[in-house]
Amino acid sequence: MRLNESQRRHLRRLAHDLKPVVRTGNAGLTEAVMAEIELALESHELIKVKLVGLERADRQPTIEQICAEAGAELVQKVGQVAVLYRANPRRKPGQRVSLP
Fold first, then answer.
1. Cβ burial, residue 77 (10 Å; 0-12/13-18/19+)
2. pTM of the complete model
């Protein structure tokens, strides 16, 4: 699912007050980190991931790898924090993050 700009703006507003729920460590993107990202996306749909221990040049490829493996969309990236979104079709309509 590709997000248009109005959807990205809406998701950025919703994510503003969120705290990062997953943090990478010095080991980078491990299977355990990917499992936590999967679990968080399934539970919340919209999450923040903090990329700790990565050089600036390594952050964007890592975010792209996360998005590809998790089937998520990058909403926003600011410094070490990436906001990711993936709709969960099994959640009830009232529980989903609504997009405009």
1. middle
2. 0.89
